[in-house]
Amino acid sequence: MSSRSRSRARPSPASARITDEQIGDLVSKLQALLPEARLRSSDRVPSARVLQETCSYIRSLHRELK
């Protein structure tokens, strides 16, 4: 069994759980860090889209480093 599987199998303490509201706040903060997202910060962007844009942005940064 891998360490990843073991960590998922263990129940986490209630205090370590992240609420939907906290996730929303974190996604909003992440959106503010993305250059493309700043232009439409007043629009409601789905969390999945923010995460996709984040991945794309990180990939572009990696390409710039190479």
TrEMBL record:
- Show where the BHLH domain sits: 7-61
Q: Which Pfam families match?
A: bHLH_ILI (PF23174)
> What domain of life does the UniProt record list for this protein's source?
Eukaryota
Which biological processes are named by the entry's GO terms?
Answer: regulation of DNA-templated transcription; regulation of growth
What GO molecular function annotations does the UniProt record carry, in alphabetical order?
protein dimerization activity
Chain spans, region Disordered: 1-21
Q: Protein name, please?
A: BHLH domain-containing protein
Q: Which UniProt keywords apply?
A: Growth regulation, Transcription, Transcription regulation
| Family recorded in the similarity comment | Belongs to the bHLH protein family.
Instruction: Decide whether keyword Transcription regulation is in the record.
Output: yes
Among its keywords, does the record have Transcription? yes
